[in-house]
Amino acid sequence: MKKIKIITIGVYGFNENSFFRALCKAEVDTFCDIRSRRGVRGATYAFANSKRLQARLTELGIRYIYRKDLAPTQTVREKQAAADKATKTTKRKRTELGEAFIEAYHTECLDTFDAQSLFDELESDAQVVALFCVETAPEACHRSLVADKLAETFDLEVEDILP
Question: Which residue among 34, 48, 138, 155 is least enclosed by CB atoms within 10 Å?
Fold first, then answer.
């Protein structure tokens, strides 16, 4: 298998221009959306809503893949919501995932995730794959857990792109 680089990126903190500029600068050729809901509330991040996002990625020559199997389930998200409530942390201000979320995400998603299946879905010329969700900090988002699993499984380089 050829060497693929994984990047992670969230939408919060970017504007439309800076978001797509960051993807281009990182030379992303494949964009992997791992959100459970492919929309973001409000006008500020409307560019990250699925249809608009896919249209812009197509214009830029970046392939789009949706992997709902990597999105946290409602049960898993509720564990993080409970941790956020206990620490009085808003979702957008969270800087790390709670232990209960991490354990539940591993149990419900990553333990059964066949990492090879993601690579089998890629085009043969894929070199830089972006894992996308919404949170600003990778440590506050499940995309970091997916990136860690891929890095461990295939000995890949991971770079987090921040606003």
Answer: 155
